[in-house]
Amino acid sequence: MFPPLNEQLDIISRGTAEIIRVEDLERKISASIRSNTPLRIKLGCDPSRPDLHLGHSVVLRKLRQFQDLGHQAILIVGDFTGMIGDPSGRNKTRPPLSLEETRANGQSYFEQATKILSSAKVQMLYNSEWLGTMTFADVIALASKYTVARMLERDDFERRYRAGEPISMHEFLYPLAQAMDSVATRSDVELGGTDQKFNLLVGRDIQREYGIEPQVTITMPILPGTDGVEKMSKSLDNYIGFSESPREIFGKTMRIPDALIQDYYLLATDTPADTLAAIRSRLADPSTNPSTVKRDLAKALVTLYHSAAEAEGAEREFNRMFREKESPDEIQEVALAAPEGRIGIIPLLVDAGLVPSRNEARRMIDQGAVSVEGARIQDHNAVLDISGGPVVRVGKRGFRRVRPA
To answer: How far from 46 is each of 66, 81, 83, 209, 224, CA to CA, in Å?
Structure first.
């Protein structure tokens, strides 16, 4: 038994960037209710990045909503398309992966994705099952169904073409291959980020070419990273990962700009609409300290990926670390090569894993962000006696207890 049409539309449309086309979605849901048949909701996952973060959770939460409404989730692991490399949103080609690499990454993706999805209600497929069996004649027939002019309408291709940067022929095959996923699965709806809009629309066109009713495409906004500027990305170190500790999730959430609190609540949690309205009212009230709302958000996120008890514990530790300036309960201990128990501050910071390079060590010292046992270090050439196992701190969250090896 499916919920009524209006109820489903209200849930599905929440937080979306675009639905193409809404009238098609209404018709598909109505037919689903009449026939008591679930819709087939497709999401392709990128096997080049097996470590998931809140940016990935936006479309996964939308897929979970479809599951909860009674529809069939189809998770496509692009093990075959991963060997092409999706150029979406890029100004240069992405290095392709081997089939073995994409399979291993896909399994890791699935294990993390089921922290959000119901594993009992998701069909996981590898697109090598149908793409790997296509002959060269099949590929030519597929390529004949789309024009180069249409391909160059895509923003990233157009930019590269105008800039005189090379576009390999195999890159044109990526959206066609992704479209064949929609043909093979006969998907009713496909989800993706706004950067995937072109590929999703190609899926509609190619389904039509193969005599299949075109899928509805639903795009979700791109979640900004904790810096509030760039798209959330591990390479930019502005991410909050699914598998991070409660302390990390809480602390990173507290770093997001106040202007993003509502977006994170809307896109990265399952907060009900009436609660979202109350949060908007609180933030609009000049007497509200946004930090208190951000704390609630941080606890909500820790609860989603860990538990309510661990969320409370993460907040207590945050208070100790940032309000009371105390060290965390557990500090990683590292043994360093230190003749006679003495070592320079810069090699100490690098060897202890507190900074990635000597230049970064110098920069953090200049910013006054380095302390040993609570005493700020200001001299690049400082030599420390670590025989007593002092606690070294860099920034707000970097702690190590160091001892001679």
So the answer is: 20, 9, 11, 25, 19
The b-or-e profile of 107-121 (16+ CB within 10 A means b, else e) is eebbebbbebbeeee
Q: If you write DSSP's letter for every residue of 221-276 in order, what string do you get?
A: PPPB-TTSSSBP-TTTT---BTTS-HHHHHHHHTTS-GGGHHHHHHHHS---HHHH
Report yes or no: 231 and 222 within 8 Å, Cβ to Cβ.
yes
Task: Say if CB 379 and CB 396 are below 8 A apart.
Answer: no
When pLDDT is cut at 50, 70 and 90, the band that residue 285 belongs to is: confident
CA distance 200 to 217: 6
Copy the structure tokens of residue 398.
């970097």
Q: Which residues pair with 44 in a beta bridge?
A: 76
- Model pLDDT for residues 287-332, shown as the tens digit of each residue: 788 888 999 999 999 999 999 999 999 998 888 776 555 567 678 8
Asked if the model's pLDDT at residue 128 lies above 80, the reply is yes
Alpha-carbon span 282 to 48, nearest angstrom: 40
* pTM confidence score: 0.74
Residue pLDDT, tens place only, 338-361: 988 889 999 999 999 999 899 999
Q: In the beta sheet, which residues pair with residue 73? A: 41, 122
DSSP collapsed to 3 states, 43-109: EEECCCCCCCEHHHHHHHHHHHHHHHCCCEEEEEECCCHHHCCCCCCCCCCCCCCCHHHHHHHHHHH
> Residue 384 pairs with which residues in a beta bridge?
343
Contact 206, 218 (CB under 8 A): no
Amino acid 174: pLDDT: 87
Q: Which two tokens stand for residue 333?
A: 């201990």
Angle, helix 308-318 to helix 246-253, in steps of 10 degrees:
60
Q: Domains in the chain, ordered, with CATH?
A: 5-220 (3.40.50.620), 246-323 (1.10.240.10), 333-404 (3.10.290.10)
